Amino acid sequence: MRKHLAQAPADAPWLIERGRRGVGYKIAAGGAVAWWRTRSVGGGEDDAKLAAIAELRMQMLGDAGDDDGLLLTGKQRYEEYKAGEAELLYRRTIGELCRVADIEAETSNAAIELRRQLQGVGPAIRRQFGLAKEVETAIEALIGEKLAAFSKALDVDVDG
Predict the structure, then answer these.
(1) Higher pLDDT, 133 or 34
(2) What's the farthest any 2 CA atoms get from each other in the chain?
(3) Which of 86, 94, 103, 109 has a CA between 20 and 30 Å from the CA of residue 3?
(4) What is the average pLDDT across 74-92?
(5) What gap in Å lies between CA 129 and CA 34, rounded to an integer?
(6) 9, exposed or middle or buried, with CB in 10 Å at 0-12, 13-18, 19+?
(7) Please, what sign has the CA dihedral across residues 27, 12, 33, 7?
(8) Higher pLDDT, 57 or 94
(9) Highest taxon of the source (predicted)?
(10) Using CA atoms, how far apart are residues 40 and 3, in angstroms rounded to an integer?
(11) d(CA 124, CA 131)
(12) What is the percent of the chain with per-residue pLDDT over 90, rounded to a whole number?
């Protein structure tokens, strides 16, 4: 709906406050829905074809979809694919999307650093409070168990 609201007239009585990056629109929903419906009236077949094209775009970009009945030419399919690809690039550029590999790498690095920092807790507590070696061993064992559970939950390898 956001892309439709961006095209709304500035003096619309139902538009309380325009949104911008990070700030949502404030609208009177009833008036906004009525305005949106008047914009899309008259093209039932066009709406169906636009929905089918959007579904095809999702299919080409890896989502499930079906292009039966669209009768698109090869050039139209290519243009739709390029439009979807451009949309993904734009969404990635503005920070709305990111690569899974990047997130996995950062998560693994964070888990490894957490492990490194926590492994020093047992010896530090032992030295600070003059405790026995058994206490340090128990602390390290407990930290090791918690780190293993954390790593399993994240499905990352922290032994690196």
Answers:
(1) 133
(2) 82
(3) 103
(4) 85
(5) 70
(6) exposed
(7) negative
(8) 94
(9) Bacteria
(10) 14
(11) 10
(12) 19
Nearest alpha carbon to residue 88 among 111, 120, 58: 58
Structure tokens at 68: 């039966």
User: What does the buried/exposed string (b/e) look like for 33-63 if buried means 16 or more CB atoms within 10 Å of the residue's CB?
Assistant: eebeeeeeeeeeeeeeeeebbebbbebbeee
pLDDT tier at 132, thresholds 50, 70, 90: very high
Q: How many CB atoms lie within 10 A of CB 81?
A: 15
Spacing of C-alpha 119 from chain mean position: 33
Q: Is 65 exposed, middle or buried (0-12, 13-18, 19+ CB in 10 A)?
A: middle
pTM of the model: 0.42
Cβ atoms < 10 Å from Cβ of 108: 17
Q: Are 6 and 32 a contacting pair, CB within 8 Å?
A: no
